[in-house]
Design goal:
By secondary structure, this protein is an alpha/beta fold. It is built from 14 helices and eleven strands. The structure holds coenzyme A.
Length: 390
C-alpha cells in the first residue's frame, strides 16, 4: 500500500445558506481545496452525503458534482453512512490512493438541510435510526441520545447536578472554540447557565446540548505521499497514518451497553494498531459531538479518558484549547454546525490546518498528531483517522 497525504483542504462558511444550492456549496468547497493543493484536475471523487433525496430531492450526486466541478468523465461516487458519510468518503479516497488505483482524489462532503422545515429535517435524520425498533415508536436522535445520557448517568452513578454541569461544559467549550473559527455556524459564547436553562428538547438534553441543522460542504485532496513530496510542495504534507472503521447495531435496544460506544472503540483500536500508536500519542482530536453526551462517551471510547471520567475531565479543562487533550478546536458539531454528510470531511480540514500551523487564533501549541472520529446515527457506524505532520 502507498502512503497517502492530504495536500489541500477547503470549506466555506456554514449556516443557513438559503441563497445557494447544494451544487454551489459543494463546488465552492471543492475549488478551495483544489486551489489549496494547487491541482487543476482530479482522478476520482468520493462525496459523503447522508440523504440529499429527502433534503432537496436530488440523488445521483457523484455524477452531478463531478459535472459541476468540470471533471467529467472521472469516476465519482456518493458515499453514505448517515452522519459518518464524510468520514467514510475520506476512507474510500484513502483506499483508492493507497491501492494505487487513483493518484489525485477529491474527498468531499455536503448536506443542504435547511431547505426543508424542522419537522422534515428531523424525519430525514431519523431514517438513520432503526425504523422498526425506534422510529416507528416515535424516537428521534435527540430522544435516542437522551436515552444514552440517562443510561450513562445511572451507570456511573453521577449526581444529576454534576452530570448536568459536565454536559454543559462540552457546549461551553465548543462554542468558545467556534468563536475563533470564521467558518462556524454559531460564533457565539454560551455560559453554563445558558446551556442549563435553554429550551428542553429531550430530557436531559436542552437546545444548547444539541448540534444544529446546517447547510455546508467541505473537501480535501489526497495523493500518494511520494507525489506530494515531489510535485505539491506548497504545504508540508499531512499524512494519513491510519484509517479504522466499525459498526454496531442501529437500535439501542440491541446493544449490550447503550452508555458505551463500542464501534468507536473498535474503529479507534484498528487505527491505533495501523499507526502503531496509543491514545497518549494523539495530541488533539476532532470528534462527533452531535449532542454533548456524545463527546463525553466518544473521548472515553477513544481511550483518552477512563470510562465514566470523560465528564470530569471536561469540567477540569483537560479538553479545552489549552488542556492536555484539546477536543474539537474547530468548535465541533455543536458550534461549527453539522451538515451531516460534510461533518467528517470538515474534521479533516481542521486537523490539516492545525498540523500545518494555520489554525489562526485557535492554533494549538502541540499539534503534531491529530485524530478524527466521525459517527453515524447513535453510534451504529464510526470512522476514525489518524493524521501526522511529516
Ligand atoms: N445550538 C444553538 N442554537 C440553536 C440550535 C443549536 N443546536 N438550534 C437552533 N438554534 C437557535 C436558532 O439559531 C434560533 O435562534 P434565533 O431565534 O436567534 O434565530 C433558535 O435557536 C431557534 O431555532 P429553531 O430552528 O426554531 O430550533 P428548533 O427548535 O427547530 O431546532 C433542535 C432545535 C435542537 C431541535 C435542532 O437543532 C435539532 O434537531 N438538532 C439535532 C440535529 C440532529 O439530530 N442531528 C443528527 C445528530 S445524530
Amino acid at each position: 500500500m502507498r502512503d497517502v497525504a492530504v495536500i489541500g483542504v477547503g470549506m466555506n462558511k456554514w449556516g443557513e445558506l438559503w441563497e445557494k444550492s447544494l451544487r454551489d456549496i459543494f463546488v465552492e468547497a471543492a475549488l478551495l481545496a483544489m486551489d489549496d493543493a494547487s491541482v487543476d484536475h482530479i482522478d476520482s471523487l468520493y462525496v459523503g452525503s447522508m440523504t440529499p433525496g429527502l433534503f432537496i430531492g436530488q440523488e445521483h450526486l457523484g455524477s452531478l458534482l463531478a459535472d459541476y466541478l468540470g471533471q467529467c468523465p472521472i469516476p465519482a461516487a456518493r458515499v453514505e453512512s448517515a452522519c459518518a458519510s464524510g468520514g467514510l468518503a475520506v476512507r474510500m479516497g484513502w483506499m483508492d490512493v493507497a491501492l494505487g488505483v487513483s493518484d489525485i482524489v477529491l474527498v468531499g462532503g455536503v448536506e443542504k438541510m435547511l431547505d426543508v422545515d424542522g419537522g422534515a429535517a428531523t424525519y430525514a435524520l431519523a431514517t438513520a435510526a432503526d425504523q422498526e425498533w425506534e422510529c416507528y415508536n416515535g424516537a428521534t436522535f435527540p430522544g435516542l441520545y437522551a436515552m444514552i445520557a440517562n443510561a450513562y448517568q445511572a451507570k456511573h452513578n453521577i449526581p444529576f447536578d454534576k452530570f448536568r454541569k459536565q454536559l454543559a461544559q462540552v457546549a461551553v467549550k465548543n462554542h468558545a472554540n467556534g468563536l475563533l473559527n470564521p467558518n462556524a455556524q454559531f460564533q457565539s459564547k454560551v455560559t453554563p447557565e445558558q446551556v442549563m436553562t435553554s429550551t428542553m428538547v429531550a430530557d436531559p438534553l436542552r437546545l444548547l446540548d444539541c448540534s444544529p441543522i446546517t447547510d455546508g460542504a467541505a473537501a480535501a485532496i489526497l495523493c500518494p505521499l511520494e507525489m506530494a513530496r515531489a510535485k505539491f510542495k506548497k504545504h508540508s504534507p499531512v499524512v494519513i497514518a491510519a484509517s479504522g472503521a466499525a459498526t454496531d447495531t442501529l437500535s439501542l435496544a440491541h446493544r449490550e451497553d447503550i452508555a458505551y460506544l463500542k464501534a468507536t472503540e473498535v474503529a479507534a483500536q484498528h487505527a491505533y494498531k495501523m499507526a502503531n500508536m496509543k491514545p497518549a500519542d494523539i495530541d488533539f482530536a476532532e470528534v462527533h459531538d452531535c449532542f454533548t453526551i456524545a463527546e463525553i462517551c466518544v473521548i472515553e471510547a477513544l481511550g483518552f479518558f477512563e470510562v465514566g471520567k470523560g465528564g470530569d475531565a471536561t469540567l477540569e479543562g483537560a479538553t479545552a484549547l489549552d488542556g492536555a487533550k484539546p477536543i474539537n478546536s474547530s468548535g465541533g458539531l455543536k458550534s461549527k454546525g453539522h451538515p451531516v454528510g460534510a461533518t467528517g470531511v470538515a474534521q479533516v480540514v481542521e486537523v490539516a490546518h492545525q498540523l500545518r500551523g494555520e489554525a489562526g487564533k485557535r492554533q494549538l501549541q502541540k499539534a503534531r498528531i491529530g485524530l478524527t472520529q466521525n459517527m453515524g446515527g447513535s453510534g451504529g457506524s464510526t470512522v476514525v483517522h489518524i493524521f501526522k505532520a511529516v
